[in-house]
Design brief:
This protein is 46% helix and 15% strand. The protein is an alpha/beta fold. The chain has a 6-stranded mixed beta sheet, sandwiched between helices. Helix 8 (184-200) links the parallel strand 5 (169-174) and strand 6 (232-236). Helix 6 crosses helix 8 (184-200).
Amino acid sequence: MDEIVQWRNQLLQYVNQAQLWIQWMSSTPLYNTIGVVSLSTAIIFSIRLLKPRKFNTIILAGLSGSGKTELFYQLRDGYSQEGTVTSPDTNEATFVLRTNPVWRQKGRLIHLVDVPGQSRPKLDKYLPQAAGLIFLVDGLEFLRHRPAIAEYLFDILTNATIVKRKIPVFIVCNKTDKVTAHTKEFIQKLLEREIQMLRAKGTAVSEADIANECKLGVAGEAFTFAQCRNMVTVGEASGLVGEISQIEEFLTMHLKP
């Protein structure tokens, strides 16, 4: 972000220099016309760059089998497709969020990205434009995959782009329509404990972000999600049967119409 600010400041300097050049060359009508057109173009371009950007990309992340693809179709189509299978490819779609009346009226678009598995390169590709990240956890198989889930979440929470841009992360305990699914309170408590153990091992910075020093938590204290620099919340859903009200609230909160 600092590089972008420096680049914009440099561009403004060029605009000022162009204005002085036009004044110097304005002795002939031809140069005067060319100068006015050039200056106008530069000013318009600068205004567009300086105007705050509206990020509309939401990333779905989580281990394979956590229900990302089901949620993807539920948000895009309003229903989940039967027989969805794990895909090594990224699913993308841009559409109007139909559950928000303001979005429907203005035709505001959401760009939804379903990142497969634990693909760090694919995740990093979309983070600069992300308005939020939804991390899905399989509420049925949580205990069996707990270490892998915690490691992936740890990598996300220490990601340099997420930390510096303060991208909000919503941890969703999925498949809660099943009787044997674990509660969000149970999953949150164990994930915080697992991440605390990762910190205790001296891996408080993810391997890819060592140079950026994105440390997680508060030294000398047991880790909780409340210690993260970005907003991290925990909720429940069931993408297969359409119980996604908490996810829709997250989208409405962090996507600007």
